[in-house]
Amino acid sequence: MAFVDLHLHSRFSDGTYEPEELAAQARRCELAAIALTDHDSVEGCPGTAQACAAVGIEFIAGTELTAEHDGNELHILGYCLETQNSRLLTQIARFQAVRQNRIREMVARLNQLKMPLSADAVFALANCRAPGRLHVARALVAAGLCASLDEAFERFLKKNRPAWVPKFKMSGKEALELVHQAGGVAVLAHPGLNRVDEVIPRLVEAGMDGIECFHTKHSTATTEHYLEVADRFHLLVTGGSDCHGLSKGKPLIGTVKVPYQHLEKLKARAAEIRTAAWPPASS
Ligand code: AMP
Ligand code: FE
Ligand code: FE
Ligand code: ZN
After folding, report:
1. Is the pTM of this model over 0.85?
2. Residues whose CB is under 5 A from ligand 2 (ion)?
3. Nearest to residue 229, comparing CAs of 271, 270, 187?
4. Is 153 in the pocket of ligand 1 (CB under 6 A)?
5. Whose Cα sits closest to atom 13 in ligand 1?
6. Residue-wise pLDDT tens digits, 84-126
């Protein structure tokens, strides 16, 4: 049986792997295909596509966009994207600028809390256009100001903690449209982590294609619940590890087993979207 991992981050957002390392890890896990889903970035896609081709692994270009509904954050995954789509690139550049300003704000708050960290130290460590909280956490640990990433999030960076800064978020509907107009398939990421069940019917109405049922942080019961939701709303099923590279011990890549058949259906939907045959005229 062939398996895929459709949720991976690289060093082009808050993952640690270079494209070649991702491809090598995918090969080690004997995955048939992987998707790169960096936060607010598609920059790693061409390089990862090339690295995957070199080791005989199918590659899906993706991203993970941050959206919001009624003050609750939700993440929208885009798959099979045209990574040169100009509107997508314009919007992504905007999200990245917001992320960079937000780093400065978070650091200013940390400084007020007598944590001597500089924004430049975070930018140097992040070394990418889409810096985020995980980079701030890593910088705090690297500077010896926190003992662990968990401590950094618990003390400072989690929602409503003193150095947490909300970032600009588009609506879920806008995120779906951005993905679709770039030829992509739009999927709700890890719903079990964001408590967004009540929003799902509206996202479905707005054209959402699928739901990430399999995820590292979903229990078996949570996965079963979302498989049932997918069935009820006729949604595609996806899944992945949400691996951010080397963390504690072994990386997460390949640990969430997603059968290839789900990718097959996702690609069929992408083909429909590109030929403008979706949504069907009757709906
Ligand atoms: P941001 O997009 O900047 O708000 O950062 C969100 C990212 O921070 C998530 O995608 C995770 O990679 C990371 N993250 C959130 N909470 C934690 C945590 N408790 N421990 C480690 N990483 C976390
Ligand atoms: Fe992340
Ligand atoms: Fe996410
Ligand atoms: Zn993710």
Report:
1. yes
2. 14
3. 187
4. yes
5. 134
6. 999 999 999 999 999 999 999 999 999 999 999 999 999 999 9
